[in-house]
Amino acid sequence: MPGQLSERMEAMGVESLRFDISASRALKSAKELAAFCRGREIDVIHAQYPAENIVALLSKRYYPRPNVVYTGHLTIDGGAKWRIINRIFTPKDKAVIAVCGSGRDALIRNGVCPERVRVIPNGVEPNEKPRRDLSARASLGVGGDEFMISCFARYSPEKGLGFLTDAAAKLRGLTDRPFKCVICGDGELFGEVKEQIARLGLEDCVVQAGYRTDTAEILRASDLYVNSSSSEAMSFALLEAMNEAVPLVVTELDGNCELALNEDLPCGLAAPYGDADAFASAMLRLMEDGELYRRYSENALARVKRDYDIEKLAQKVLESYK
């Protein structure tokens, strides 16, 4: 079935190819990809995940012209099978891009050829100034005077949405200030988290907004953005929140801390994954400390402009294609 990206590309008049990346069909898909590239004289294949990278490298057997570049977005242990596969295949990549230091370390642990790895972080197009706009709150059931905490995530185990719900319960016990924690996303644990919200009596302060396409508008209406993951490289959503001058509370993962805890432009606080009390206390601090909040808000956008300008980073990616 077509995915959202291919549907958007079709609407823009951009041709795309969809193929099966399962192991049993890898060679067939590699041949299809090679034929597609040959017919269009394509010079570069940029893979975004491990299986796609293998299919791209296999396609060079049938059409050797394209350079293959692979970006690793995961920090999990791929296991012995992937260590072997990566040791065999990744020396053939033109470059392997890690989006943060912990991502680089994870790639190397998973058998990726160290000589191919370079760090190029994710980026966004910097805003000139904050674009505060509360209009998205109405559709989410959030009042204009409520402190709005946002999180964009799949309902999958590593995103820690059950942990975030526990932290919201702790936060409610720490403050009389009205707040709403708005979770945007869908996935297999949606129902489980819904039951947890009901069990903890949090229906008045935790909103399951489902899948949303208006995330930029939601960020402009937000006071705080949180990342509760147990595993993360560098979250685009964190960068997008920073670009709207929204301070962060994150779990103590390298990619998260690289964004939130920069030495000269800090823009958020961090707490250990699983420690709901510490996570709630971090959220409370940014709810109550107006001076710290203002400083982190200013730093967030300044950091994007300095370190995560998509034009500058895209140039580095283009250089890796050559």
From TrEMBL:
Give residue ranges for domain Glycosyl transferase family: 137-300
Q: Provide the taxonomic classification.
A: Bacteria, Bacillati, Bacillota, Clostridia, Eubacteriales
**Where would I find the Glycosyltransferase subfamily 4-like N-terminal domain in this sequence?**
22-127
Q: Which GO terms describe its molecular function?
A: glycosyltransferase activity
| Species name | Candidatus Scatomorpha merdipullorum
User: This chain belongs to which protein, by name?
Assistant: Glycosyltransferase family 4 protein
Which InterPro entries does this one have? Glyco_trans_1, Glyco_trans_4-like_N
Give the coiled coil ranges.
none
Q: SUPFAM superfamilies, alphabetically?
A: UDP-Glycosyltransferase/glycogen phosphorylase
